[in-house]
Amino acid sequence: MKRSFVGLAVVSIGLLVLIPFSYTQLNAAPSQYQSSEQSNMNFEDRERSEVNLANKENPQLSEGEVVQATKSFMDQLLQDTNSQHEVENYDSMKAYKDSFSDLAETKVVDKFVDRYYEERDGNLYIIPTETPPWFQVGEDFEQETTEDGNILITQTNQTELDGEYTIKFELQLKDNGQPYIMDIQYE
């Protein structure tokens, strides 16, 4: 019986020593796992930053983003008018041009609005004519990065009315990632 008691005492003492040590090891494992996890996350964050940096140096837009930028501009350019061609939503050229502020550079807005609209007798009127040759959805286009980091979209189209034309949009990405039209050229 003494032997059993001594054996039980040795086992108990052994357990008392081993349990806290094992518990410490078990608790250390999650922190080691977290460190490894954080290390992986830091690596992924660094990798994402490098990709973002590369995108800033060579930004690319999806076809949907190009379509949205060109469509938003054209939608704003085409205003509702009454039977006398008076614009319904704007009374002045200045207010109308200001409405493009999130879409395009002032020189672009001036080029198009001055061609298609006029202000008379304190009202804004559209000059009845055809819409300009424009970006065609679903048609191929090229995309390249300019020296100053803007995106140049080039598309060649042919329509019955306009014949063959090439349109070039120079887009800049705003801080929120939205494309902003810096220039539009035709060839």
From TrEMBL:
Origin superkingdom: Bacteria
Region described as Disordered: spans on this chain: 33-62
Residue ranges, compositional bias (Polar residues): 33-42
Name of the protein in question: DUF3993 domain-containing protein
Taxonomic source organism: Alkalibacillus salilacus
